[in-house]
Write a structure and sequence with these properties.
Blueprint: E1 8-16, H1 33-50, E2 57-61, H2 63-73, H3 79-84, H4 93-103, H5 108-113, H6 115-123, H7 132-145, H8 155-162, H9 168-182, H10 185-195, E3 198-202, H11 210-214, H12 219-222, H13 236-254, E4 260-261, H14 270-278, E5 283-287, H15 288-294, E6 309-313, E7 316-323, H16 325-334, H17 340-357, E8 365-371, H18 384-396, E9 400-403, H19 405-411, H20 438-456, H21 465-474, H22 477-482, H23 492-510, E10 532-533, E11 557-560, E12 575-582, E13 586-593, E14 603-610, E15 614-619, E16 628-632, E17 638-640, E18 645-648, E19 651-657, H24 658-661, E20 668-677, E21 680-685, E22 691-694
Helix pairs in contact: 1-9, 1-10, 6-7, 7-9, 8-9, 13-14, 17-18, 20-21, 20-23, 21-23
Length: 707
């Protein structure tokens, strides 16, 4: 334990948000993620904090998430859970395959925890050939896996895990447990907020990007090169309404007004700050990238990050807190592959170091802010060992004081004035994730036309509230997040349909004719090979770490990194693309690096899942020298790989004998590449999935390889 008074303050903000998955017509949820995160993340995150009396944490909850949690508690059905409650024999055809597919969507920690589950997943690969007994078992495992391990001592789970053959009573008991736990979420946070140990903050009601609601051309302030719609969306009154309604909904749920707000995706601008101040909010939070672009170049010193700032608006001052991007991303993307206690100790040590480096008249304030739900799926036991070790370590550390934003503002006699406020978000301090791509721009054009139709027809919020409610839903950020090529989801078509349903409801509720364009999908088909390109044929590149000539890798397959991410957004990383190909004797891999980032890489590791688990360590990455490749066996002993070659220069080129991988004609290869720096694994490639390659019957069938 540390001795002496606190030397640094640590502000944690966990952001809880899911898109509004409810259909415009009947309110039924198309996707189950609110219900599943309620039992796997929201409830246990609150209960875990409640165990530590000295810990202070901020939870940010989006109002439209609260609405959906209320629906779950009230028994409003959703598509998947309706099907799970039915006899498995009644599920047939595409409906049955859909349930099998959904129930195979399991957190990685759960798959690693139970060998019986892994065996079942192997036996249900063919979605159309799963018998009743296996389907029922898959449903039960799905329900268990989407419960945090904190709840595995519940009698329903113990009873299910103790059986060798699931029956409908096990599934029904697990369904009832899910409903009971999800119904506790809002009240648990309310009690925590009332205790004074946790600050509860909000986001705009339907999670819109506020600066773009004020004026979509605001995106050009950070990115003048961005191509935005010619007809801009301009509705500052909608931005103000999303904020005022959020405050009202939060107050109704938790019995007190929020004092601050994480504006959707940390998106701020001078206009948004004024709206927030006018609504009586005391603080906003965003990313350090916004701070650096708000300060004169000579004042962009790290010490500026570790303090709150004050921005003066026409409606009065408002405080701004800026997140430490690296520390937040270490929790989001790095620590999941570490030993949990080592990861917790590393974070605490880094906070201590920042306190020592930036000591002054007032304690340095380190702000860690991130998604409180999606990041845990890659951690052992859903992040429980890491969070327990972290919270225990922080409670024992007398030199680190955890605080909330309102505590900081109440205790500091003065807060420095920010000379300017940049218009940007937490991602690259701009808005390219939500506007600028052809799909995103088309979505904005449809929203603009729908709003104009209401205004031109004299359909006001007072006379046609349902139409305006649908418009506010369509203004949410999540539709624009999934349009374009920045992020991948197999449900892209579902998001597309939901978005256009909300816009159709605008016209229908207002009694106005619907544009025919709302019947046309906005998004490209999910199978469109934008981020995963198939090989054209065999190749035999020169393994020298250089792009020897254009056609050397021309026939290779390619996975572009950073364009296929999921719901957690990863900033631009070290790797930009993974190429793959083969000839009759070798598998070839090529890893491309972002400009100026190659020096950060000290090793690579290949993780092969199929046809058999293998780990290959690649070290000593000196330019123009063959790297050392070793196969790490199950006994952790390293073995040389005969015939394997790797050379790293401007790119990394690797050749592996096919025989060493256990590949036979017709088999499938599943792999990922881990990029390792001085602090451990920096990133995995391609990201949140594996590269899947079917090895052809003969080299001339190269075009049959697929990802």
């Amino acid at each position: 334990m540390s001795a002496g008074p606190a030397a640094v303050e640590l502000l944690f903000l966990w952001h809880h948000h899911q898109p509004d998955y409810r259909r415009a017509l009947d309110g039924r949820s198309r996707l189950p993620w609110v219900r599943l995160h309620a039992t796997k993340d929201y409830l246990d995150m609150a209960l875990r904090v409640g165990r530590h009396a000295r810990l202070r944490v901020t939870f940010n909850l989006v109002p439209s998430l609260l609405d959906q949690l209320d629906d779950v508690a009230a028994g409003v059905p959703d598509e998947l859970f309706e099907r799970l409650a039915r006899p498995v024999a009644s599920l047939a055809g595409a409906e049955r395959a859909e349930v099998v597919w959904r129930c195979r969507m399991l957190p990685p920690w759960a798959i690693e925890s139970w060998s019986r589950l892994r065996e079942l997943l192997e036996a249900t690969r063919d979605l159309g050939a799963v018998d009743d007994a296996r389907l029922l078992a898959l449903e039960c495992w799905f329900l268990i896996a989407w419960l945090d391990p904190m709840f595995h001592d519940e009698s329903e789970v113990r009873g299910a895990l103790a059986t060798t053959r699931f029956d409908a009573s096990h599934r029904d008991a697990l369904l009832a447990l899910h409903a009971r736990l999800a119904a506790r979420v809002i009240e648990t946070y309310r009690r925590l907020g009332e205790s004074g140990r946790v600050e509860l903050s909000a986001s705009p009601y339907y999670h819109p990007i506020l600066p773009l609601l004020v004026d979509s051309r605001a995106a050009l302030r950070a990115r003048p090169d961005l191509v935005v719609p010619i007809d801009p969306f301009r509705a500052p009154e909608d931005a103000a309404l999303q904020v005022s309604r959020a405050i009202e909904r939060h107050t109704r749920a938790f019995g007190a007004r929020p004092r601050g707000m994480w504006p959707s995706e940390g998106s701020v601008s001078p206009e948004v700050a004024e709206i927030a101040a006018r609504q009586g909010l005391a603080w906003l939070a965003t990313d350090e990238g916004v701070l650096w672009r708000s300060l004169p170049e000579g004042d962009r010193k790290r010490a500026a990050l570790y303090r709150p700032w004050r921005w003066e608006t026409a409606a009065g001052p408002i405080a701004l807190f800026f997140r430490d991007h690296e520390l937040s991303d270490r929790i989001g993307f790095v620590y999941q592959r570490w030993d949990p206690r080592d990861a917790a100790n590393d974070l605490i040590a880094r906070v201590r170091q920042l306190g020592a480096e930036h000591a002054g008249e007032e304690l340095p304030l380190v702000s860690v802010m991130l998604d409180g739900e999606n990041c845990w799926e890659g951690y052992a036991l859903d992040g429980a060992p890491f969070l327990d070790a972290l919270y225990e370590g922080l409670e024992a550390a007398t030199d680190i004081r955890t605080v909330t934003p309102s505590e900081v503002l109440a205790e500091r006699s003065s807060v420095a004035r920010l000379p300017a406020l940049h218009t940007g978000s937490w991602i690259d301090a701009d808005f390219h994730i939500w506007i600028g791509h052809a799909e995103k721009n088309r979505a904005w054009e449809l929203v603009t036309r729908a709003r104009r139709a209401l205004v031109d027809a004299g359909r006001t919020l007072e006379t046609h509230p349902a139409a305006w409610e649908s418009l506010l839903r369509a203004e949410g950020s999540d539709w624009f997040w999934w349009f374009g090529e920045d992020h991948y989801t197999a449900d892209k078509a579902v998001f597309d349909e939901l978005f256009r349903e909300h816009l159709r409801a605008v016209y229908e509720s207002a009694g106005l004719p619907q544009p025919a364009t709302l019947g046309l999908p906005i998004a490209r088909p999910a199978s469109d090979p934008i981020t995963h390109l198939k090989p054209l044929g065999p190749l035999t590149p020169v393994i020298d770490g250089r792009r020897s000539h254009f056609y050397e890798w021309h026939a290779a397959g390619c996975v572009r990194v950073g364009a296929g991410g999921g719901s957690m957004h990863r900033a631009a990383g070290i790797a930009t693309a993974l190429h793959y190909g083969f000839d009759s004797e070798r598998l070839y891999l090529r890893l491309d690096f972002a400009a100026g980032r190659r020096a950060e890489v000290i090793a690579l590791r290949l993780e092969l899942i199929e046809p058999r688990p293998l780990r290959i360590q690649i070290a000593e990455l000196s330019p123009d020298t063959d790297a050392v490749l070793r196969l790490i066996g199950a006994d952790a002993v390293e073995h040389p790989i005969e015939g394997a070659v790797c050379r790293v220069g401007e790119i990394a080129e690797i050749a592996l004998p096919i025989a060493s991988l256990g590949l036979i004609p017709g088999s499938t290869l599943e792999l990922m590449v881990e990029v390792i720096g001085s602090a451990g694994v920096i990133e995995s490639v391609p990201g949140e999935d594996l590269v899947r390659i079917m090895f052809p019957e003969a080299p001339e069938e190269a075009s049959h390889w697929s990802t």
